[in-house]
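Key result, reporting period 2: structure in, sequence out.
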């Protein structure tokens, strides 16, 4: 068995370990999919440690990240297995009862898929666990989308105690600074770091490393420049894991040009968006969005009502915003977002007068957000349409009624913006 030892503590992922182990018992090919820095390799290595003994011939980890050419895959696997001829690998493994781990398949997805398909057909007792940004798309594959670590819902120590993201931060913070202790004085800053980084393990580890020279509050205050701040990984890890930007760029650079363009433009949305909103900021949004989801650059969240909302994890959104700004595309993307939200608000406004008013008011105010309309980057011509999109008057007249009308119309805009995106890209909802 080829297995690397763990140099740092393994934190969380209890549910994921159980679910993936169950999948491995049921399926011969399981792929752990997710964005860079989500912890796919780390989870795979822990799974190998936990279940290798259940395979008669153990487990073998094949690391693909160092390879750059398609024709290297089968040849390199043969060499590491001690097989002279790459073409005889299926025959050599035909009777093997082994767990083969194909780690980091995304940059060589086609040859990895072909290899997995050939080996599974030729070797009936073989099981394969793959890690990749996207599925291999091989018959019989079970895909497990690895989520971010759970983040604290508020700043309390009780919530931090229940959050795997906070546990990871504390563990790595103590490695960077032995006298670090989580307490009332720094709980709010730690919670803010975990939330701002959306529970992305690599980002949290890099932020914790900063405690060698910064206080938690100082790290939290500088996360608007997260890509620049989180650039302090260990010397011995691969280059793509040394900085947050490099980890995201590893996946971004594998995207097609149309996928990169849409990803960049979607970065104007904070808090989530719909497929209609994606179409509003890009003419090929409907066609390209599913590919970004498949490649783990966009998260697709199933809602209680059966609908799907999409979002970019905050570190990925920051990366997309930087690329969008570099391409001079921010102004047009933000203007398109603004136009769509205003149109949605105008369609929603009439429903706020009459029987549906109470529910509309509750929906908008329950968000707990405030709304600031954009004056930079978006067309100023849109601004006059927002504060009062209707000339209707409330029954009874009077200043209090007019003031109430304006508040409700503003609520319709807020509710529309919350529905579309959280609107922290062009209009910031805090």
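The corresponding designed sequence is given below.
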């Amino acid at each position: 068995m080829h297995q690397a030892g763990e140099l740092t503590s393994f934190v969380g992922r209890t549910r994921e370990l159980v679910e993936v182990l169950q999948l491995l018992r049921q399926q011969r090919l399981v792929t752990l999919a997710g964005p860079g820095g989500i912890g796919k390799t780390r989870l795979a290595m822990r799974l190998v440690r936990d279940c290798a003994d259940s395979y008669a011939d153990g487990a073998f980890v094949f690391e693909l990240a160092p390879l750059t050419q398609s024709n290297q895959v089968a040849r390199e696997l043969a060499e590491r297995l001690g097989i002279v001829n790459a073409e005889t690998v299926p025959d050599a493994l035909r009777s093997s009862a082994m767990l083969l781990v194909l780690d980091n398949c995304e940059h060589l997805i086609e040859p990895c898929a072909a290899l997995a398909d050939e080996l599974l057909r030729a070797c009936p007792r073989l099981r394969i666990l793959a890690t990749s940004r996207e599925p291999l798309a091989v018959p019989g594959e079970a895909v497990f989308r690895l989520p971010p670590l759970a983040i604290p819902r508020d700043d309390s120590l009780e919530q931090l105690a229940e959050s795997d993201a906070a546990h990871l931060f504390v563990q790595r913070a103590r490695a960077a600074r032995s006298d670090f202790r989580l307490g009332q004085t720094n709980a709010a800053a730690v919670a803010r770091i975990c939330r701002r980084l959306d529970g992305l393990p690599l980002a949290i580890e890099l932020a914790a490393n900063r405690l060698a020279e910064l206080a938690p509050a100082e790290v939290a205050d500088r996360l608007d420049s997260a890509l620049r701040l989180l650039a302090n990984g260990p010397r011995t890890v691969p280059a793509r894991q040394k900085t947050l930007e490099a980890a995201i760029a590893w996946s971004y650079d594998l995207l097609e040009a149309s996928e990169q363009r849409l990803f960049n433009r979607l970065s104007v949305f904070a808090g989530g968006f719909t497929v209609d909103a994606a179409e509003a900021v890009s003419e090929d949004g409907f066609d390209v969005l599913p590919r970004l989801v498949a490649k783990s650059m966009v998260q697709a969240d199933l809602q209680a009502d059966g609908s799907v909302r999409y979002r970019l994890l905050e570190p990925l959104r920051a990366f997309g915003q930087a690329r969008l700004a570099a391409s001079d595309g921010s102004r047009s993307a933000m203007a398109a977002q603004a136009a769509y939200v205003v149109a949605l608000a105008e369609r929603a406004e009439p429903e706020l007068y009459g029987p549906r008013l109470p529910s509309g008011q509750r929906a908008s105010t329950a968000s707990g957000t405030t709304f600031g309309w954009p004056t930079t980057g978006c067309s100023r011509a849109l601004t006059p349409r927002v504060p009062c999109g209707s000339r209707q008057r409330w029954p009874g007249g009077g200043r209090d009624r007019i003031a109430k009308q304006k508040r409700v119309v503003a609520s319709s805009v807020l509710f529309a913006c919350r529905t579309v995106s959280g609107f922290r890209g062009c209009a910031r909802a805090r």
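The first helix runs from residue 14 to 26. The chain has a mean pLDDT of 83. This case is discussed further under Risks and Mitigation.
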